[in-house]
Amino acid sequence: MNRVYVVAFLIVLVFSSCNKLKDVHLNTNPYDKDYNGPKVAMINHIEQALIQPSDHYVKVITFSSTVFYSFVVVYRNGVEIGTHYRTAYHNGILFQENFEDHGLVAGQTYTYQIKLKYESGYTSLSDGCSVTIAN
Amino acid sequence: MKFKSIIFLMVLLLFAIKGNAQSSEEGGYLKMMVQGLLRPLCRVDTSKMRTSDTVLYLPVGKHRVQIWEPTLTLIDSTVVIKLKDTVKYSFTLGFDPAWVSYAWAHDKYKSKRNKNYFVSPIFIGLTLSAGILMNQVVVEKQYKKAMDSYDIYFRSGYQTDMDKHKDDFEASRKKYNNDRLIEYGIYAVSGALIINYIRIIKKQSKVIEPVYHQDKLLSRIDFDVRPGLMNKGWLCGLRIKI
Q1: Which range is least confidently modeled, A48-52, A80-84, B78-82, B143-147?
Q2: Residue A116 near residue A69, CB atoms below 8 Å
Q3: Which of B66, B67, B118, B200 could form a disulfide with B43 if both were Cys (CB 3.0 to 4.6 A apart)?
Q4: Average pLDDT over chain A, rounded to whole?
Q5: DSSP B95
Q6: Which of B148, B162, B174 would you mutate first to test chain A, the one with the most A CBs within 10 A?
């Protein structure tokens, strides 16, 4: 009789493991307000430039993302400074947007963050990436 | 003329021989009609033959007649032959009571064995088929529906769309889980039937199959009959007693 219980237990175990929706949760879309996953955008590099002696600016922001997006919303020191339409080319996993932020002061350090936008949804803010403007 | 006289003499000689022969036979005819299964074995005094209906010429007087056929009862009788007369005897062989009880018991045994062997597998097959059908048609449909909602949710950028497809997904998941419960219930019934079937088979294997044996009555050849399970017929055995 014990063997019957063991077989029954194994059958229940096999069937319970067959629940294919058990590990499917609908909080995996980074544009969802209930998203509960890792950050999907990360700034990898900020390139700065100087055209005129008085005009330092950030020229290129290179970042990686794991999701599709339409716009990049750029923040400097926690303040939104603009929304950039997606023009990036995809280089492996890196996106490179030519976003220009003028009027920066040489010697100052600025922290940039981005948010990705698709349709009406936004991802969470990326981690900050600091750049010190060269003289 | 000489030739005609020779023919006449030969005809006279033939009649003389015939008349002499008839005068030496002091017997009569036995017309025997036997009703058995096939061709029963008959013994008249010491002569044996396999026959159903026959006519025998026997000396006048009493003669012992024995008739037998496998699975039937032996007839042991006496016939009286009258001079130059034909006596008619009709014999009907009845079934051996042991054979009748064996046939009844074996029929019952076979009926129960077939029921035990074949009824449960039919229900097991039906329930398993119902479970598989439930899985492939109903449960998979809900799974596909849920995953479609998931895909749309994952590709959406509008919160309202995402919320709607989340609700759709949860509804499909609920139905999926309910259908799975029904499916597992069906499999549980199958499992119970399988366990019961194993129990029945074990029990059946302990049942002793009825066997019929009858000694050969009129010959050295012994006859034995038993049911053959492989060819679903009868197995007949013949043994010669030395």
Answers
A1: A48-52
A2: yes
A3: B66
A4: 84
A5: B
A6: B162
Phi and psi based region of residue A72 (left: phi greater than 0; alpha: psi -120 to 50; beta: remaining)? beta
> What is the C-alpha to C-alpha distance for residues B191 and B211, in angstroms, rounded to an integer?
35
B52 pLDDT band (50/70/90 cuts)? Answer: confident
- The verdict on ipTM greater than 0.90 is no
- Taking CA–CA distances from A118, the nearest residue in chain B reads B157
pLDDT of residue B214: 80
Query: What are the residues whose beta carbons fall under 8 Å from the beta carbon of B87, sequence distance 6 or more?
Result: B28, B29, B30, B31, B79, B80, B81
The minimum CA-CA distance between A93 and chain B, rounded to whole Å, is: 19
Please give the CATH number for the structural domain made up of A24-132: 2.60.40.10
Closest CA to A129 of A70, A61, A71, A79: A61
> Which of B150, B152, B198 to mutate against chain A (most A CBs within 10 Å)?
B150
pLDDT(A113) > 90: yes
A67 contact B CB<8A: no
CB contact under 8 A, B158 and A26: no
Say how far apart CA B196 and CA A4 lie, in whole Å.
11
CB pairs under 8 A between A and B: 57
| Distance of residue A44 Cα from the nearest chain B Cα, in angstroms | 25
Q: What are the chain B neighbours of A117 within 8 Å (beta carbons)?
A: 157
Residues above pLDDT 90, as percent of chain B: 61
Nearest to A106 by CA among A61, A60, A54: A54
Q: pLDDT higher for B49 or B201?
A: B201
